[in-house]
Amino acid sequence: MATYKGIQGYSVKKLSSDPSPTASVEGQLWYNSGTGKFKIAITAGGAWASGGDFLTARSGPCGCGIQTAALMYAGAEPTKSAKNESYNGTAWTEEADLTTARTQPGGFGTTTAAICAAGGSAPAETDITEEWNGTSWTEVGDLGAVRRAVSTGVQGTSTAGILFGGYAPPGNQAIVETWDGTSWTEVANVNTARNVAGGAGNLGAALFYLGDLAPGQTTKTEAWDGTSWTEVNPCNTPRAKPSSGGGSATSAIAAGGGPSITAITESYDGTSWTEVADLATARLALGGTGSGNTSGVVVSGEITSLTTATEEWTDPTYAIKTVTVS
């Protein structure tokens, strides 16, 4: 008869306390002598957990970086903002303000080297671009086209990024521009012009999803291969003003949105979108960034008023369960 050691390669350990549930102990069984119970470490699907509150509540802040090292700047509080905050995975810290306050800009980079471009407050859109060096913002080369409510490949660098879509009178824009550290260059347009959509990826491979078609919201998703845009499988629920997913063209998260404020979260794996665990706080016009569908952070946004709530996404999550025998 097979034994546990024969199957697993090790005996059931006797421990005085449970180990931390991590990938290294996933699937392991042990006996907790303190509780007199058998325990096992398991994995579950992705989940949202509360993070440190944002310092200044805003609508539509722009973000870049990862869950444990993020930057969020600009937005509306309710008028256009120049505020800039950094996150270390636990708490937000106020950093030096942007030179030009704005709403709904685009951006990419890291906490020490980032770009903020476009934005405004209707009817005054802007083409101003600023670069962050970890200490202060400096105005650099202007965009080719003024606009706001743009999307970006959030995980670009301060010397290589992409910005797409947006709004400028008289309507939605299909314009795409790439940044080389000095200047912007117009490249192939997106297939469907829209604003307040989500973005993920970088200069060589990006994702453009959801958004406002004016009128109505869309589920459309387009992928950028460095040369052109191709329509791929759509999201499941049409909405505008979701979080951007950071990550890549094959790994992204779209959380929240509106106009009917929602907590819906969808995960993209490079082929299709799947609905996963909802946000704890339904909202639209939230800031977001991260490492795609495995790790991310969303902040602030609109409920019936502005919120400072921060949530962190992790997939998979690890837990410890008590083994019961019936």
Structural overview:
The protein folds into 2 domains: 4-44, no CATH class; 47-314, 6 Propeller (Neuraminidase), CATH 2.120.10. Strand 19 (176-179) and strand 20 form a beta hairpin. The chain has one helix at 4-8, and strands at 13-15, 29-32, 37-44, 47-50, 62-66, 69-73, 84-87, 92-94, 106-109, 114-117, 120-121, 124-125, 129-132, 137-140, 151-152, 161-164, 167-168, 171-172, 176-179, 184-187, 198-201, 206-209, 221-224, 229-232, 252-255, 265-268, 273-275, 287-290, 295-299, 310-314, 317-322. The mean pLDDT is 93. By secondary structure, it is mostly beta strands. Strands 1-2-3-31 form a 4-stranded mixed β-sheet, with no helix packed on it. The chain has a 4-stranded antiparallel β-sheet with strand order 4-30-29-28, with no helix packed on it.
